Amino acid sequence: DSIRVFAPATVANVVCGFDVLGFAVEQPGDEVLMTLRPDPGVSIRRISGDQGRLPLDADRNTVSASVQMLLRHLGREDVGVDIELHKQMPIGSGLGSSAASTVAGLWAINELLGRPLTALELLPFAMQGEELACGAGHADNVAPALLGGFVLIRSYQPLDVVRLPVPALHCAIVYPEVEVPTRDARRLIRRTVPLQDAVTQWGNVAGLVSGLFLGDTALIGRSMQDVLVEPVRALLIPDFYQLRELALQAGAVGFGISGSGPSVFAFAPDEAAAARIVEQLRRHLAGLGVGSRGYVSAI
Ligand code: HSE
């Protein structure tokens, strides 16, 4: 018995919603091939696309570690599986790379066992995988990777996840090939915020969510502002503000950092506009001597 599962990249934060908003894209994503075997235990047999950087040790790899946690929770330590992980997106890129792998693994084992848990019930295990990957069990990548679409994490304790309407927009993503580990990018953020900044931020979060429900693209666009996290993380991204200018000139509805960066993303009214934005940003980065990858996707 074996199963192949794809889980998508995700854009977390969506500019103003640090740790509470995220959405899934169609591609890129990661793939897990999982095979049941007669003897108990969880093993990683092969990883491709990671340039040898991810651990094969089953206790340290987030895919196998979260599968082990799930088996323990279900009292099914008698089960044995071999895992192949095929990474189809860069690591440390801000595209929810670890989340996609973890979610694909959890989905695979849940299917092989005859679906004992719902997608939502898999979420806490995926969050533990994130904790292992970056030191923080945030859900804004794993929840949309697991559930699809646009997701709000209204509360972490207790966990309260709300599915939001998906806007009729395309997403342009550009990954400048500099690495920003989430663990480091989280350390930079201030622990306390001035009240006035908090007011601006929650106005924008509410505006973005309202824009999604109203299908109001202009409201979505003008709510995509972040006064708390972006000013600090922008420093890690080559020419961030120039990239924003270029994206907006090329027709972007809104622009910002994807997750903890260095990827940036923009909403665009259609596929052609998204492709134009990707091209402009990549050309600018090439001019700086920075290699990049680009993705265009429906949301
Ligand atoms: N909300 C997380 C962060 C997402 O910004 O650190 C990481 O991809």
TrEMBL record:
Record domain GHMP kinase C-terminal: where: 211-285
Where, per UniProt, does this protein localize?
Cytoplasm
Q: What is the main EC category here?
A: transferase
Reactions that this protein is recorded to catalyse: L-homoserine + ATP = O-phospho-L-homoserine + ADP + H(+)
Instruction: Extract the SUPFAM superfamilies matched here.
Output: GHMP Kinase, C-terminal domain, Ribosomal protein S5 domain 2-like
**InterPro entries, alphabetized:** GHMP_kinase_C_dom, GHMP_kinase_C_sf, GHMP_kinase_N_dom, GHMP_knse_ATP-bd_CS, Homoserine_kinase, Ribosomal_Su5_D2-typ_SF, Ribsml_uS5_D2-typ_fold_subgr
Which Enzyme Commission number(s) are listed?
A: 2.7.1.39
State any GO CC term: cytoplasm
Protein residues bound to ATP:
90-100
**Which example biological process does GO assign this protein?**
threonine biosynthetic process
* Pathway field: Amino-acid biosynthesis; L-threonine biosynthesis; L-threonine from L-aspartate: step 4/5
Which family is annotated? Answer: Belongs to the GHMP kinase family. Homoserine kinase subfamily.
Q: What does this protein do?
A: Catalyzes the ATP-dependent phosphorylation of L-homoserine to L-homoserine phosphate.
Give the protein's recorded name.
Homoserine kinase
Where does this protein come from, organism-wise? Hymenobacter gummosus
